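New to this. Help decode both lines:
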Amino acid sequence: MAGIVLENVSKTYPGGGKAVIDFNLEIADKEFVVLVGPSGCGKSTTLRMIAGLEECTSGRIYIGGECMNGVEPKDRDIAMVFQSYALYRHMTVYDNMAFGLKIKKVPKKEIDRRVREIAEILGLTDKLKKKPSAMSGGECQRVALGRALVRQPRVFLFDEPLSNLDAKLRTQMRSEIIRLHENVQTTFVYVTHDQTEAMTMGDRIVVMDHGVIQQAASPREIYDRPANMFTAGFIGTPQINFFKANEIGASGSSDVIVGIRPEDLHLAPCDGAVIGSGNVEFIELLGASMNVHLSMNGHNVIMTCPVDNSIARGNTYEIWAEKGKSRLFDASTGLAIASKTEAEA
């Protein structure tokens, strides 16, 4: 078993800077958990504390039921994949993957078995004799993954491993890492600032801001039922639209903020209500869909819809919001307000 438990974990740097504050999380054995948030939110610091690369100021960290406080990284039975794959350029793919096992004096036959087995999983079998200089960025990142996998650790930790790749390679590598998790059946903890990666990869997402967990839940729950305005605004592309309730006739109160996702707005009558009139400022074509940017009573409003050539820049339209799709938040705290239906559930 290789579950991870963080109990009241905090990290304060000299000078008083708080990177992580009272972090509590249980990660199940074989679960794929993604820590996501903006730069400086504490996600990488949390990962480094799990790895033992940084000591927590307070709290306890357990891996497989064993307390890791004070345990050296090499003794935690974890493997870490970083943003920079940092391969040995003078070594072949085979030797890069085998290097860590050779240092541990693993028998040669066992090294060869593990390297070839992982190379097969990662599609690297025909590249074992190549050197990194003759390979693409995506191939090098697969080698970095392979180097970690051959160690057969209890836990894999990923610190923004795809951020240096182009968009096409990131999409490809996301799929490969998901398949990899299904194949190796090991606990994965993955750090990213990219909410698309978080939504598509994790069994569970932990949204962080200023060192504090904002919400930990499945991707679907995070998207449909954000716990607060920060989570609602951070998760989702394009970003959710926020209005004061009295500005759109929702409840007449400025103490309530209404969040409406772009796909839940329409420029034609729907099963919902008109929230105002908007002038089309510009349109982003995205292939089969488009983002329509409108100006409504001083608000910049974004609507996502299938491509519709009848919608033109400079025209004014009534903006409709679908019934039952709005999220309500307390203006003073930013916390979600449960609807009557949710409260009775």
